[in-house]
Amino acid sequence: MGGSSVKGLTARPHSGTADLDPSHLGEMSPPTGISVDGLLPAQDSTLETFETGALIDPATNPASAPPDLGSSVPPIAIVIPTLNENGNVPRLVNELESLMPQEPEIIIVDDGSSDGTPDSVLKLRAQFPRIHLIQRNGRKGIGSAVREGIQFALANTASGYIVTMDADGSHNPDELPGLLAAARGVDFVQGSRYVEGGAIRGWPPLRRLLSIVGNNACRILFQTGFHEHTTFWGVRSLLESLGAGFRTLEFPITFVERTNGKSKLGIREIGGWIASVARLFVRDRGS
Predict the structure, then answer these.
(1) Considering only CA atoms, which of 168, 212, 221, 220 is closest in space to residue 193?
(2) HSE-up of 114 (CA within 13 Å, CB side)?
(3) Shortest CA distance to 113 belongs to which of 155, 84, 151, 154?
(4) Cα(150)–Cα(32) distance, integer angstroms
(5) Coil, strand or helix: which one is 85?
(6) How many domains does the chain have?
(7) % helix / strand / coil in the chain, to the nearest 5?
(8) The domain containing residue 177 runs over which residues?
(9) β-strand 171-171 against 2-3: which pairing, if any?
(10) CA–CA dist 147, 157 (Å, integer)
(11) 193 φ, ψ to 5°?
(12) CATH number of the domain within which 174 lies
């Protein structure tokens, strides 16, 4: 999502389909032939984009963002990977805390920031005790950071939803109520820039073109029916989720290019993503 964003993954329990609900993957057996690890973002998932959430089709289920989420919303865990985001984390955390009707579990996975990000998180935790900081030595990648954060949420919180999002202001926290409203009745919501109502702001033409080509290629190669494939959740995890029978929707979000700090997305990350998609396509053709 944009602003303080909700990255693409939101999970909620459903009666009668608990075995297909990502929020229970840590405590229940997955569907036959599907591993729990297969449903989490791949270790080499590198593209830094927007969120993961419950999937909603705006054509048949228009999103509305209620100003008040209400007390009926179950506890929420928000996973935020960081690397040198000291100038962004305090603002994002305060926005999320003011937006939620009950204090969310905020899980920050830091990849060895050198700008004081962990110290800022610890100061925030004095005010908001449900902030959790996972400190990792060195840059291990955004995909594995999200994976570790989701695993922590499953094992250590009683959250009914898990949301992932960027720390850099690309995802707007104000879109979170609409995303959570969309999650009612489905298992997984994907925040999407490419469905009706979605948008991208501040990208140069070349980056926009690369993103459009990459997403359309995945849509055609893997026949997902989705418009958005370059999120934390990743192509492999999306395919596993669809194969497991998850009820999914795409939710329109506005992605805004960061205005503070430096992007971690470069040629190396783009090349790694292309290679991982190619390996996945070859594997699926051979299976």
Answers:
(1) 212
(2) 2
(3) 84
(4) 22
(5) coil
(6) 1
(7) 35, 15, 50
(8) 2-286
(9) antiparallel
(10) 15
(11) -85, -15
(12) 3.90.550
Amino acid making up residue 199: A
| Lookup: tokens for 108 | 């920050």
- Dist. CA 257–CA 89, nearest whole Å: 16
Tell me the β-bridge partners of 255: 200
Q: Please count the residues of the chain.
A: 287
Token output for 36 = 């729990």
DSSP type of residue 8 = B
Q: Each residue's pLDDT tens digit in the chain (287 positions)? A: 432 233 343 333 333 322 223 333 333 233 333 333 444 554 443 322 223 333 333 333 333 334 455 555 678 999 999 999 999 999 999 999 998 888 999 999 999 999 999 999 999 999 999 999 999 998 888 888 998 999 999 999 999 899 999 998 888 999 998 888 888 888 889 899 999 999 999 889 988 898 888 888 888 888 888 888 877 666 777 888 888 888 889 999 999 887 776 665 667 766 676 777 777 777 777 66
Query: Do 47 and 60 form a contact (C-beta atoms < 8 A)?
Result: no
CA distance linking residue 103 with residue 52, whole number of Å: 20
Write out the two tokens for 235.
Answer: 């192509």
Tokens of 66: 């209620």
Structure tokens at 179: 């995303």
Burial 66-104 (b: 16+ CB within 10 A, else e): eeebeeebeebbbbbbbbbbbbbbeebbebbbebbeeeb
**Which strand (E) or helix (H) includes residue 274?**
helix 267-286
Amino acid making up residue 153: A
Helix extents (H) in 194-233? 205-222
Cβ-count burial 215-247 (b if 16+ within 10 Å, e if not): beebbebbebebbbbbbbbbbbbbbbbbebebb
Residue 131, beta-bridge partner list: 106
